[in-house]
Amino acid sequence: MAERADDGPAWLVRRAVKAAVAGALGAAGANRAIAAVRRREAGGARVIVLSYHRVTADFARGAAEGIPSMLVSAATLRRQLEQVARSHDLVSLSDAVRILGEPRGPARRDVATVTFDDGYADNLAVALPVLRALGVPATVYVATGFTGTRRRMLHDRIFAALGALSRRGLPPNRISLAGAAHALYGACARPGPGATLDLLIARLPHEGLVRVTEALEERAGIREEDLPPGTRLLDWDELRALDAAGVEVAGHSVHHAVLANLPLAEARREIEGCRDQLAERLGKRPRHFAYPNGYHTPAVRRAVAAAGFETAVTTEDRENLRGQEPFALHRKVFWENSTLGPAGYSPALAACAFGGVFHALRLARTVDGERPDAPGGPAGGGADPERAAS
């Protein structure tokens, strides 16, 4: 999740190579050929769901304070949406799902829909003006336990604590914590904060993750309220303003807990509590849901359906197919560097990213977010240590 914004010369070389490959593929017509094949496989127009988190006026400043791979600048967001609009029809999530429900038929123009996870305050202040200027519909998935509070997401708190300790010469794999948190943390500690954060989220039950977060903050001498303003979540008035502006507000659990790591009864409370809070505060039931961090199980999917949601999305970068289960829709996660070449924004890289070219040619790997049900225990079992958080 927490990929660095800049990793020196090696990073520049990798970006240059990737941009060069993207340019060569585009010049050779690979994008068009792959799109035609994928449309046939999809049974018609491809339906692409784009996923974002935070939107900032200044990426460099935001990346210095928070998790870079959750950030996109307003300027880059605009360029990405302008480019995708040249090859796709930008539609609401409900329209995208309707298209997926249509019978297989002749290929038409591909469609894309835009989503934002977690409910950061900048979705209103920074993202909405871009969406309005371009006439782009969007959906915001909200973890309601944070709405209207001063609380911050656990991933932001962990990243801030790890950063504070690293600046004191303590990399994540050399941090010791007090009490029971030490063993939980030590099993996931790696040299870099991003890898450590990803493993903590993937492996620990929510209660354990909270314990480790609090222990890290105590070790670093920082408090939840000390986090930068950019990590603030929407309040209820701001959420109502987004709703009034035509942005669809959807569910993302109550506490942003990884549902596959919870006992099923707790997972249900997270799902239904989010639904009920949104319905009470906004005057209408949410129609769509996003699995926190992208993890899901068959039982969790059934619980989302039983709660009355119409769809649920993962963070798996795969094609959406006609007739597929609506509670495991796939999304492409984007941030600032998704379309960044060595000299700035790369239209060639963007075209490959939007078109799924690198995945089609097996030059990129899709990580599966589905876990098996665990009878009598948590909603799911096992964990992919390389899974990116979202």
What can you tell me about this protein's structure?
This protein is α/β, with parallel strands linked by helices and 390 residues long. Among the domains are: 8-143 and 234-244 and 314-360, TIM Barrel (Alpha-Beta Barrel), CATH 3.20.20; 154-226, no CATH class. 44% of the residues lie in helices and 12% in strands. It contains 15 helices and twelve strands. The chain has helices at residues 8-27, 30-42, 59-65, 74-87, 93-100, 122-134, 154-166, 181-186, 193-203, 206-220, 236-244, 264-282, 298-306, 347-355, 357-360; strands at residues 47-52, 54-56, 71-73, 88-90, 110-118, 138-142, 248-251, 288-290, 311-313, 332-333, 340-341, 344-345. Strands 1, 4, 5, 6, 7 and 10 form a six-stranded parallel β-sheet that branches. A two-stranded parallel sheet has the order 2-3. It has a two-stranded parallel ribbon with strand order 8-9. Strand 2, helix 3 and strand 3 form a beta-alpha-beta unit. Helix 1 (8-27) crosses helix 14, helix 7 runs antiparallel to helix 9 (193-203) and helix 7 (154-166) runs parallel beside helix 10 (206-220). The radius of gyration is 20 Å and the shape is globular. The relative contact order is 0.17.
